[in-house]
């Protein structure tokens, strides 16, 4: 049995103070988001309705420690259908921002910048559909330099940045160019052997 | 209230009970009894000098027993009229109040109940409701745990004019609780107590929770609910505001509440449907949203006014959709929660409706009635011959018949609604119903059973329900065999035993008697009169040699077209399964007995003529 008093009642306020979290309390648990969600088809244990309810109850650790909050692909299908007009993908961004601030890391791959080779051309910034990449001033190897930087809370690991980068300075953890090339070679060689 | 008391056309009779109601629409006579206040209304100016000197303190009913009142008291400070009353059950007659009253000389221990008759044109019943006693639900611990209270108690605690001057404090330690849990549907939507939804509890709980959260933003406010019902204008927006204020809504009905005896805190166990898990919440105060229930004296009031009750126990309206303000008795109207749980806007609307319906009567010199009322043939009524009878009066759902020995039964046309109960019940066939005379119905019977009666199902249907059911079967395209023939009367109470005998005498294969479900009867208790008759008849017919499967009684509502079709289908199958030879034999065998019982039928005016009618093939 869950003891409600042991939960953190301020968690919902913390989420609501985060950009994107404003409308959390409007949710009356109708489940439309859950029924529309495409991600759920892949991950049956993914339930945005339940996550929002858990946030309202104050189940802080369970929410922030859950891999579920990183699953939302921000397709916004649920936002179109939500009767309370809650932008759920924004809400999930808020959960992730809090998680990152606490030093938690996303379970899946996100984009990673090689700051030494990045020339700050900004193609990745333009290409990113989730506004997860920005150009920042940074000290790299002792020099002040403008480089791309990925916000892990927003990154959906789509790989648009990696594909658009002209200097091969940005790629996905677990899905780097080298790994993908290797996979392709194996696939092609395997096909040749089979032929 | 003050406005009403000052209005030149309104006479307020407070502390007064209605004892008897006689007469009919436009001409009611009402006997009222003014209970003794032991304070002279004209002398008392409401100064309140008497109450402080009174040594007796008893729980104050208006304050839900949270605060005391004296034995000489006013119910609350806005009471109209502002006149004190002595509660003689608790008064010790020390007469200190008499001294305090001094020159006004308003106290009179010699007062007696006073009765008087009033002439009124119409009546409006607005007797309100009672609150469910939650101590019946033992798992919530009301009465056992001090900090489990009802909403009405919270209303008083939270009221600036209340006993705590609006300082919220819990009963056990008089401290402001930092957490509160509201529990919905206490005693309503529950088979064990009341199955209906009380309707307005969701809104008042949200109001209380919002008020609490606004004044104490840091406290923890939780509402346990099964469904939140916010059907009226602006209600959903209010609910949304409550959610956005940070009130915790948990869908799940608590199963048990336990108390920590040291802290007085309460532990509520419930399934949180949103979470899919059982949760436990510790709360410093629990507020139960109790059901609205019919007032304890509804039965008494109902019999004084001759109006009936719905299955829920509240007063029944004439028609749930088309005449929601009228009672089944003409000239009596219903307003507010006496008719069913209602919130303020709905009560005001119904009250306004009732007032305008009542004015309609007051402003008209004549009253239009249906042309189907009962009529007594005075020469046939045995009461006129000095014999004791009066069966008709006992069966009339509207008390429309007056029987005095030595005089023929007299029907008050304005009270008669034309159910026909008296007509069918009169053992001497001395009453008829206009447009539904015995002769007319018997003529129909003969026409319907003129050819091959043994292959027919004769169905008696009441106008409001089973005829509607048959109609519904037709419009909904529910097919049923063509062997049925229907006769419509206004109520199952009109379905005379003689008609059923005549149908069997003529050789009808099957007879179906159908009417409203008991709670749906449009003539208060007409269905019950019919049902009792049909019950006895089943045994009688069996004794007379009629196979039990040839006679069937079914209650079919106007919405039950499918049921009507099914019943006819089943009866048709049964009829077809009977051996035709045996059936013919049964008809021939039983006919003489029916003829014997019906030998006096031709004596009824016009019936002999109807019996002789022939129907072309």
Describe the structure.
Chain A is of the alpha+beta class and 195 residues long. Chain A has 2 domains: 4-101, Alpha-helical ferredoxin (Fumarate Reductase Iron-sulfur Protein, Chain B, domain 2); 111-194, Alpha-Beta Plaits. In chain A, 40% of the residues lie in helices and 12% in strands. Chain A contains 10 helices and 5 strands, in the order E-H-H-H-H-H-H-H-E-H-E-E-H-E-H. In chain A, the strands form 2 sheets. Chain A has a two-stranded antiparallel ribbon. A two-stranded antiparallel sheet of chain A has the order 3-4. The mean pLDDT of chain A is 90. In chain B, strand 14 (256-259) and strand 15 (266-272) form a beta hairpin. Among the domains of chain B are: 130-293, FAD/NAD(P)-binding domain, CATH 3.50.50; 371-431, Alpha-Beta Plaits; 436-612, no CATH class. The mean pLDDT of chain B is 95. With 617 residues, chain B is of the alpha/beta class. In chain B, helix 12 (466-475) crosses helix 15 (561-577). In chain B, 28% of the residues lie in helices and 20% in strands. Classes of the chains: A alpha+beta (195), B alpha/beta (617). Strand 1 of chain A pairs parallel with strand 16 of chain B, so a sheet runs across the interface.
The separation of the N and C termini of chain B measures 72 Å
Shape of chain A: globular
* Poorly predicted sequence stretches spanning 5 or more consecutive residues of chain B: none
Strand content of chain B: 15-25%
The ordered string of helix (H) and strand (E) elements of chain A is: EHHHHHHHEHEEHEH
Number of domains of chain A: 2
Provide the spatial order of strands within the biggest beta sheet of chain A.
Answer: 2-5
Helix content of chain B: 25-40%
CATH topology of the largest domain in chain A: Fumarate Reductase Iron-sulfur Protein, Chain B, domain 2
Provide the structure class of chain A: alpha+beta
Q: Please report the total strand number of chain A as a whole number.
A: 5
Tell me the total number of β-strands of chain B. 27
Major sheet of chain B: order of its strands? 10-17-11-12-13
**Main sheet attributes: strand count, strand direction, barrel closure of chain A:** 2 strands, antiparallel
- Biggest interface, residues from each chain: A-B, 20 and 23 residues
Round the Cα radius of gyration of chain A to an integer and report it.
20 Å
User: Average pLDDT across residues of chain A?
Assistant: 90
What would CATH call the architecture of the largest domain in chain A? Orthogonal Bundle
Instruction: Output the CATH class name of the largest domain in chain A.
Output: Mainly Alpha
State the fourth-level CATH superfamily of the largest domain in chain A: Alpha-helical ferredoxin
